């Protein structure tokens, strides 16, 4: 009995040590800005994942499958969350701007901005799975390019999504927020005015095109091409604009690439994108997409049981981790 008691006694400190180490790990990876402030000799991380989420969304996959990444998961509708925003307004744009503002002096060499859902219709993957793309992403390419869209397929957004001057709604329609027949405003109809307010002194482009949907990676240098105060001003615009959330968020969706130094129409060929960004070279590509990479889904909501259950309830082969 004494021997057993001794064994139990030695196990308690070990368990406490493991718990303490785990908590330190969590603090290091989920609140690294505080860690950097408390450890001024530490260097910023090479890569950081920034996630825009709601309380109702499951982001456990980020921690489970990307344990070695620095990651900041923002919860926009929870003011008590470790990472949150001034107001849940403007969709993911509020998260992205808030992170840049808060982390401006300790930005990662590469920051990757994504939505909360691992499986979503817009993720550029045969299973609409965000994880393989993140694992394959080449940070060196991001640093060389400054900005890289996580979506290589050109369906939706390219070659031209918005013609600011041609598409602009009248001042009266913009003021009312709807067309006379009740139709809601679309992002392309408010883009010109929003661009003038956000980018004063910059000529409004005639054409804007970039593959959807506000998931991208950007280098520290590209972010710092603008002073922190500019991002603060853009967030103030987002907080103050009378535009609906979907409209203001969509304005930024078609401005991020411009903000980070790309031409207003930024639609590199899918073959080039898959090869340089993800190392998937030699794909058979024709125009807008590459064989075996992305098929436009039947619906914007994936079926229950995806990725192992298909659109008609059939079993799907899926070998990735869940």
Automatic annotation (TrEMBL):
Pfam families from the UniProt entry: DUF3431 (PF11913)
Organism: Staphylotrichum tortipilum
Domain of life: Eukaryota
Protein name: Uncharacterized protein
Membrane-spanning intervals of the chain: 12-29
Matches recorded under InterPro entries: DUF3431
Keywords associated with the record: Membrane, Transmembrane, Transmembrane helix
Lineage, broadest ranks: Eukaryota, Fungi, Dikarya, Ascomycota, Pezizomycotina
């Amino acid at each position: 009995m004494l021997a057993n008691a001794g064994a139990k006694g030695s196990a308690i400190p070990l368990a406490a040590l493991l718990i303490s180490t785990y908590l330190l790990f969590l603090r290091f990876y989920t609140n690294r800005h505080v860690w950097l402030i408390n450890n001024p000799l530490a260097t910023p991380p090479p890569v950081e994942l920034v996630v825009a989420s709601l309380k109702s969304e499951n982001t456990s996959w980020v921690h489970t499958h990307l344990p070695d990444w620095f990651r900041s998961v923002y919860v926009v509708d929870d003011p008590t969350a470790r990472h949150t925003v001034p107001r849940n307004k403007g969709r993911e744009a509020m998260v992205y701007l808030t992170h840049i503002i808060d982390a401006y002096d300790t930005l990662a060499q590469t920051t990757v901005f994504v939505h909360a859902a691992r499986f979503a219709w817009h993720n550029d993957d045969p299973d609409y799975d965000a994880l393989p793309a993140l694992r394959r992403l080449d940070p060196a390419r991001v640093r060389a390019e400054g900005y890289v869209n996580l979506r290589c397929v050109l369906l939706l957004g390219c070659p031209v999504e918005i013609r600011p001057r041609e598409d602009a709604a009248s001042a009266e329609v913009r003021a009312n927020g709807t067309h006379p027949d009740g139709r809601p405003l679309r992002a392309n109809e408010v883009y010109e005015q929003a661009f003038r307010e956000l980018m004063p002194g910059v000529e409004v482009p005639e054409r804007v095109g970039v593959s959807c949907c506000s998931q991208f990676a950007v280098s520290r240098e590209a972010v710092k091409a603008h002073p922190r105060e500019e991002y603060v001003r853009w967030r103030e615009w987002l907080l103050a604009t009378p535009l609906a959330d979907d409209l203001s968020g969509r304005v930024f969706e078609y401005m991020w690439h411009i903000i980070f130094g790309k031409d207003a129409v930024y639609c590199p060929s899918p073959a080039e994108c898959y090869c340089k960004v993800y190392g998937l070279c030699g794909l058979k590509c024709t125009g807008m997409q590459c064989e075996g990479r992305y098929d436009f889904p039947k619906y914007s909501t994936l079926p229950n049981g995806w990725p192992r259950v298909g659109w008609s309830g059939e079993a799907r082969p899926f070998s990735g981790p869940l």
